Amino acid sequence: MTVRDGRIVDEKLWVMRPPEGFDHFDPRNVQIHGITPEMVGQAPRFGEVFSEIAQAMGDDLVVAHNAAFDLGVIRSALEVSELPGPALRHACTVILSRKSYDLPSYSLPFVAEAAGAPLEHHHDALEDARACANIMIDIGKIHGVQRVEELEATLGSGFSRSPAYTVGDPLSRATRDAQNWRASAGTIPRPDRWEVWPQEGSNPDPNPDADPAHPLAGQCVVFTGNLGMSRQEAKNRAAAVGAQTASRVTRRTTVLVVGDGFVASDLRSGRLTSKAREVLKKRESGQGIEIVSEAEFLQMVGGTWPASV
């Protein structure tokens, strides 16, 4: 998706297989995005198409909804494909939308609707990219700017730069996790092992060296419902990226992560936990709390679904 002067001027979709040896399809991820191994079975590998993708990106600003996740995927795919990659300027519409809209959830469908470009098929790659572009365009209008440099100066956060990658550089955590999973002959757990009665565990201190530009850095995060990982593992991952965790919703809470298969549309249907209902009441009284699905949280903190809980 290419944007020039506040308009989408070009669209292109690449269908590809993951790098060889790292192409297992976790059923929970398939449930989210609907992409099966058979759908990409005849497609080229990531390493075969990345040069074309890099050429399309050029020196442009790369915009994504939770950009840290998308840039991390590109970096990890380059590492395991043993390919170099360019430095990339990027902007995160999760962070920017928090500064531009007042919403119960900053999930892509909610923000796209607020931007006047509602999604019909969430997780379709081309439609998600189009929604993200329209969100960025609308955010610029909200703040009365026409250039991304002006928007960065106005909002002060949400923009970053990932360094170039050279084969032989230290590997990212995502790649190390994937290598460890493969080396241990990891298996995907049966569905009945994903859901356990949640035990709160302890609330670790936030990582003082975490990237302050991360969408969870400085947030106070509470968890509710059954997750695909232990509550303690979720808290540890949140603390690692600079979040403070807590065991109940209070006036300090800024993010509630909801398990039990919650998706953003459940905010409209009413399929909510008691903590989520409490959050909506606090929002009505003026407290700014964001509700996030477990899948969105996993994208924010990186890594893979744990093999067991």
From TrEMBL:
It comes from the Bacteria. Residues 1-145 form the Exonuclease domain. InterPro entries: BRCT_dom, BRCT_dom_sf, Ribonucl_H, RNaseH-like_sf, RNaseH_sf. It is an enzyme of class 2 (transferase). Residues 189-214 are annotated as: Disordered. One of its GO terms (cellular component) is cytosol. SUPFAM superfamilies: BRCT domain (SSF52113), Ribonuclease H-like (SSF53098). The keyword Secreted does not apply. Keywords: Nucleotidyltransferase, Transferase. The keyword Transferase applies. Its EC number is 2.7.7.7. One of its GO terms (molecular function) is DNA-directed DNA polymerase activity. This is DNA polymerase-3 subunit epsilon.
